[in-house]
């Protein structure tokens, strides 16, 4: 991706099955003081309580999302869950690089693999692994964001996502948050030097 100001920052790609703690770890990274900005993904799903457009996601209708696919506005996109499209807009990366910052992504596993292929050596991809599938299931239930059927779908998808773990540069087992935070900070510190 070429920009007029020629600054091309690094891409820090954080992926995990839903409920593994990737968003918590991304927020810890953003609080360290690194020259990082969060890439806001686009999605076609309904907003959840407390979510804001252009802060948590760019909330688009299915029609708007498909139009952006047709005009090649995405670096990557996919149907993460039936009827729910998610993607990374090119303009979002341009926005971050114009500020001469590095970009951090909080994306699902397939999105993480696609971003790694796109950014190649200018990136680091980190897989956040839950300590066990039982712990993951409990975290999803405690989150109270989804109904039983949605939780069941997320757990089934997690089993599939775990099969792609070897496609990532680094793996962090998120059992103890303070230890996981130290590990992710150390990894990111290295690539940003």
Poorly predicted regions: none
Q: H/E element string?
A: EHEEEHEEHEHEHHEH
Mean pLDDT: 89
Radius of gyration: 16 Å
* Main sheet overview: 5 strands, parallel
Helix content: 40-55%
User: How do the strands line up in the largest sheet?
Assistant: 2-7-1-8-9
CATH structural class: Alpha Beta
How much strand content do the residues show?
A: 15-25%
The domain count comes to: 1
CATH domain topology:
Rossmann fold
Which class do the helix and strand fractions yield? Answer: alpha/beta
Give the termini separation. 21 Å
CATH architecture: 3-Layer(aba) Sandwich
Number of extended strands: 9
Gross geometry: globular
CATH level-4 homologous superfamily: P-loop containing nucleotide triphosphate hydrolases
Number of helices: 7
Question: Can you tell me about this structure?
Answer:
It is a single chain. It is globular, with a radius of gyration of 16 Å. A 5-stranded parallel sheet has the order 2-7-1-8-9, sandwiched between helices. It has a single domain (11-192), classed as Rossmann fold (3-Layer(aba) Sandwich), CATH 3.40.50. The chain has 193 residues and is an alpha/beta fold. It starts with 10 loop residues before the first strand and ends with a helix. It has 7 helices and 9 strands.
